Amino acid sequence: MITIALRYRRAFDALERQDPQYTYAPSAEEWEEAKAVCKLLVVFYEATKVISGSKYPTANLYFQQMWQAKKALDKEVARENSPFPTMIVPMQTKLNKYWKMSWLALSILVILDPRFKFTYLKFRYPRVFENSAQTKLAKVEKTFRELFEEYAKLNLSEATQTQQGGGDMYMEMESNDPLSDWDRHLSLRIN
Predict the structure, then answer these.
(1) Measured in whole angstroms, how far is the alpha carbon of residue 53 from the centre of its chain?
(2) How far is residue 43's CA from residue 39's CA, in Å, rounded to a whole number?
(3) Closest C-alpha to 49, from 34, 70, 64
(4) CA distance 83 to 40
(5) Tell me: the pLDDT tens digits for 1-45?
(6) pTM of the model
(7) Residue ranges of the alpha helices (H) in the chain?
(8) Which of 45-54, 90-99, 105-114, 130-139 has the lowest mean pLDDT?
(9) Is 54 a residue whose pLDDT tops 80?
């Protein structure tokens, strides 16, 4: 709604000049505050569209959205004469709370995105975590390796069960999963 009002600023100014009884026109300072609010809120609007929208079937973009929101809030806090510091500080507190709970999971999703991988985290973490970036990167790498090893063991045990006479089980899996024979294919290639 504010963005629409900004588009019609000239109309508000013209109405103020033409109608002496119109006393609701925003001042120049209020227009500047409206612009600042819009710049800040558009970041959260875009993040909300990505995170809660149905156009994005994976969560690999969440990290970038969180980063954009953090950057926007940090920029506004650093700005002298910010028109709304009382609004920014609670927003920043909530974002930091969520970030502390989710940074590791969001980082794993970034690694799995073929466009970014671990190199993106190496680039971004010094800006996000500053002095603790290397420690956080090591934790992400360790966690990712543990997840991969767990997945590999699970995959290997399923392939072993299939090879050891689980013929009926294999047929049952095959009927439910169109890629169930892929593990068998891989195990035949290895042997």
Answers:
(1) 12
(2) 7
(3) 64
(4) 12
(5) 778 888 888 888 888 888 888 888 888 888 888 888 888 888 888
(6) 0.64
(7) 2-7, 9-18, 28-52, 62-78, 85-112, 117-129, 133-163, 167-176, 181-190
(8) 45-54
(9) no
